[in-house]
Design goal:
Helix content is about 40%, strand content about 15%. The protein has about 425 residues and is an alpha/beta fold. The chain folds into three domains: about 10-215, 4-Layer Sandwich (Metallo-beta-lactamase, Chain A); about 270-330, no CATH class; about 340-425, Alkyl sulfatase, dimerisation domain (Serine Threonine Protein Phosphatase 5, Tetratricopeptide repeat), CATH 1.25.40.880. The protein is globular. Bound molecules: zinc ion.
Amino acid sequence: MPQDERHSDATLALMVRNFGNIGGEQVRHVAAREVPAPHPPLVVEVAPHTWMIQPGMANVGLFETEDGLLLVDAGSAGDGPALRDAVRRCSDKPLRYVVFTHAHSDHAYGLWSLLDAGERPTVVAHENILGHYARYAKTAGLNAVINGQLPGANGRAWPSAPEDFVVPDVTFRDSIELRLGGERFVVRHAKGETDDAAWVWAPGRRVLAAGDLVVGYLPNAGNPRKVQRYAEEWADAAEQMAALEPECVITGHGAVVHGAEAIRDELLTMAAYLRHIVRHTLDGLNAGLLPEAIVESLRIPAHLAGHPRLQPNYDRPEFICRNVIRRYGGWWDGRPANLLPAPAAAQAREVAELAGGVGAVVDRAYAVAGHDLRLACHLAEWAFLADPDDESARECYASVFERRGGTEPSLMVKVAFSEPRRQVRAR
Ligand SMILES: [Zn+2]
């Protein structure tokens, strides 16, 4: 896999573990139709006439009936041709329905290739998808930056032009039932990673296509760089899905889950995990605690934290807690000095002055790193901000964060903690 300046070998390995067919050029060109995933699609027949296709980093569900096909999601823009070929290897029936589970860049943008090939499906999505398309168009630059994206051949780094978006033919609010080949497919709305989520239940097959509501790691309900997530409603959706007793779940990313008992265990543990964080956070807010005190006192019980498919490989419980705080409270952290603060660099220069110079702050950062990496990160950042031209401060900043990133399970933390090295190189 080609190296990428944003991602170290360790973060790429974690991406592959979480997402499967990811890497190479596509990881930085998710909006480019001409940039495919690094490997041919994985195609797995999960039940009779039912497939999980992994054309890129996200999974697609394919249901074949006598009267045609129903597809759940369509991957990233660059996944289009591989998805079309994979669908056609499974079945030659016409594509009748496509359901988008949400508007994210890795799920709703690869359909163009099947449309170009002459397919004319009815596209179904939750009504809020239109608001997400509008948000993508309005914040293309921001999303390109926070997702580390570069422009493709059309000059766009993020879906933002009308031709990037497939507008649904049918939208729904709570649920909608589709009939195909004499079979029922129930599409239900949920809120989780987004407020436009949908999941598809095929009762005749006992197969559920969950989109990113089920991904095999701790739900991405806290993401520090993204818009609001919905931990409480995510728990509701997990319980609703569990109540149906599916035999197979086609996930949004990673492996398919088989077996009623394993699925029930995963979904109900996920719901309990999210509810635990929400309850802790609301209790703290209602007791008048500051955000810092709420996050610092969060403990995840071992029976939740130990679930093998709910590990913090991507998001972290602390971030989910912060997201709940943001949902119900304001942006201020409650510390008066931070309401209208002095610039961070001015604060850092004062710390260095008190310490007797940047060199003393650097020495202290390395000393503290031996027993408290979290605290050492503050010292290293003060040293760098106090004098970004100081060679020892630059190296300290990059190396202390690198060390801490090496101890972190979460992909988004690893990426964030590799940023000091890039900042230092950029100078
Ligand atoms: Zn996804």
